[in-house]
Design brief:
The complex is a heterodimer. By secondary structure, chain A is mainly β. Chain A contains no helices and eleven strands. Classes of the chains: A mainly beta, B mainly beta.
Chain lengths: 113, 111
């Protein structure tokens, strides 16, 4: 079954404690992306990747890091989380670029206290 | 810059029609439409590309006015299952692959 998986689905952490949210897709997609969703603000892109070792900033990259060492994985790293990063995070992938359908993961609800 | 969606919210009775609009101040390469139900991930509906190509579900209808940088999603004979929040996403012309989503249109279909 074609899918995008994210782990963990729920996470409560404290300010400053480094964390990683994993994202994996089994569709051999080149394009992967991270979004955060906050009430009233819609989906905002954090980072995207066009292929292995090729990443670029989205609209709200501050406080986040990503890496793309393998085609299927695109982890999101928060090195020093802060309460304003409390949000619902979605990973997505598509076959090539922004001109294609994006498949979204189930989401990770992060709370930073 | 986020595209602007209108209306922000709409309530329909089953069988009624609705139009959701999306506009941008920048030249667009493509417009994407997704629907999200509460607590779930967004689900793809349609992509409209510069030049007229469309990819998506046959039951969904949409338009893309390249000159005005506007897109509209047409929901006809609405069903209860159409309820959810609709997002348009835009990919700007110019080489970057950032997809920028609007703030959403909340649609509720009632019996």
């Amino acid at each position: 079954e074609a899918q995008v998986t994210q782990n963990p689905r729920y996470l409560i952490t404290v300010t400053g404690k480094k964390l990683t949210v994993t994202c994996s897709q089994n569709m051999n997609h080149e394009y992967m992306s991270w979004y955060r969703q906050d009430p009233g603000l819609g989906l905002r892109q954090i980072y995207y990747s066009m292929n292995v070792e090729v990443t670029d900033k989205g609209d709200v990259p501050e406080g986040y890091k990503v890496s793309r060492k393998e085609k299927r994985n695109f982890p999101l790293i928060l090195e020093s989380p802060s309460p304003n990063q409390t949000s619902l995070y979605f990973c997505a992938s598509s076959s090539t670029t922004g001109g294609d359908e994006q498949y979204f993961g189930p989401g990770t609800r992060l709370t930073v206290t | 810059q986020q595209p602007v969606q209108s209306p922000q919210a709409v309530i329909l009775r089953e069988g009624e029609d609705a139009v959701i609009n999306c506009s941008s101040s920048k030249a667009l390469y493509s417009v994407h439409w997704y629907r999200q139900k509460h607590g779930e991930a967004p689900v793809f509906l349609m992509i409209l590309l510069k030049g007229g190509e469309q990819k998506g579900h046959e039951k969904i209808s949409a338009s893309f006015n390249e000159k005005k940088q506007q897109s509209s999603l047409y929901l006809t004979a609405s069903q209860l299952s159409y309820s959810g929040t609709y997002f348009c996403g835009t990919l700007f012309s110019g080489g970057y692959q950032k997809v920028t989503f609007g703030t959403g249109t909340k649609l509720q279909v009632i019996p």
